[in-house]
Design goal:
A five-stranded antiparallel sheet has the order 1-4-5-6-7, with no helix packed on it. It has a four-stranded antiparallel sheet with strand order 8-9-10-11. It has a two-stranded antiparallel sheet with strand order 2-3. Helix content is 2%, strand content 33%. By secondary structure, the protein is mainly β. It has one helix and eleven strands; from the N terminus they run H-E-E-E-E-E-E-E-E-E-E-E. The radius of gyration is 14 Å and the shape is globular. Strand 8 (122-129) and strand 9 (132-138) form a beta hairpin. The protein has one helix at residues 10-13; strands spanning 36-43, 55-57, 68-70, 75-80, 85-90, 96-100, 112-113, 122-129, 132-138, 144-148, 159-160.
């Protein structure tokens, strides 16, 4: 189931306010290198605010596998250069999930965890953090957490977002 600079490594080893330890998102490679051509928020509001609860069918397209998501939160579609798509959503288990095409107009991966996240209260949305596209969520204690695309085209660990996010 988005970073070009190295960030605080302490966040990668500490227990997150998301409820779990950070794990490398290298198991979650960006589907077509480090360039995102566009981002579409399919549902929810740009900042992830709104009534939250219950299970809704994710409004995914392009042949992506169906999955439930937490009603009232965003479903993101990342449009990668080269014609591939990726969907990112907050599951009913309050963890962040994603699926992506392995080739342009090709098959999709199964829904996988987007790094180690749990007890996410609100999200997901995309912002530019330190010059890199980043998926942002709100943890159980209200803090904002980021997972960014690095220059090798893989996602980083979850880290505490800077105050400007």
């Amino acid at each position: 189931m988005i970073k070009t600079r190295t960030l605080a490594t302490a966040a990668a080893t500490a227990l997150l306010a998301l409820g779990g330890a950070a794990t490398p998102a290298s198991a979650a490679p960006a589907p077509n290198g480090p360039t995102i051509a566009g981002v579409q928020t399919i549902t929810g509001s740009p900042d992830g605010a709104g009534a939250i609860g219950g299970s809704c069918p994710a409004p995914v397209g392009n042949g992506a596998p169906a999955a439930p998501y937490l009603c009232g939160t965003n479903v993101l579609r990342l449009d990668w250069t080269g014609g591939r798509f990726e969907y990112v959503l907050l599951g009913t288990d309050r963890r962040v999930w994603h699926t992506y095409q392995t080739t342009a107009n090709g098959p999709w991966t199964s829904w996988d965890l987007f790094g180690d996240s749990s007890d996410v209260q609100n999200g997901v949305w995309v912002k530019d953090v330190y010059g890199a596209p980043s998926v942002v969520v709100t943890g159980s204690l209200g803090g904002r957490w980021c997972n960014s695309l690095n220059s090798s085209g893989t996602w980083t660990n979850w880290y505490h977002c800077p105050p400007s996010v």
